Amino acid sequence: METTTGVSELTEEVAGLRDLFRRRLLNDKVQQQAVDELTKRLNQADRRAALAMVTPVLRQLVLVLDRIGEPDQDDERVIAIRDELAEILTRCGVTPLGFTTGLAFDPGFHHAVARVEVDDARLDNRVVAEIRPGYLIDGLLLRPAEVRVGWLSLTTRCPQGAGPEEGNINNGGETDGARTEVF
């Protein structure tokens, strides 16, 4: 009987230890997940703080790049400076928005500098020309693209001579005039 009691006590003790180990392993896993999440949040906060400090400088570098534009092929020094500035911006995580002409106007990524009257309904509220490119930094907008936006001509909007007084709204009620409206 004594061996049966001893085996039963050992079995209970082993089961208790097994349960204790499982709980501690689970607790360690939960704690590690919490530490990982806090570390991730801290790194994101550090990145945002660093971006907040360098963003004004990066915007100025983008403006310098705009001023340089496309230099003559003979001016090697200006080309070298332009390429170096572009490389610095790339290393800092700055990327151009890319081709915007033809896309639907999105005020989150575009800054309309002019409206251009168009006769094709497919160009209504679409970017018809990019004046200055936009840039992202780590997926966030650094500078919106400055664009001209198409808007349907009055004759297309009001096909049978209907004017603004009949419920058709256009540029403040104007019925004719300049083909481009600058903001």
UniProtKB/TrEMBL annotation:
Residues 161-173 have a biased composition (Low complexity). Keywords: Chaperone. One of its GO terms (molecular function) is protein homodimerization activity. The keyword Chaperone applies. It comes from the Bacteria. InterPro entries: GrpE (IPR000740), GrpE_head (IPR009012). Residues 160-183 are annotated as: Disordered. The keyword Transmembrane helix does not apply. One of its GO terms (biological process) is protein folding. This is Molecular chaperone GrpE. It comes from Kribbella pratensis.
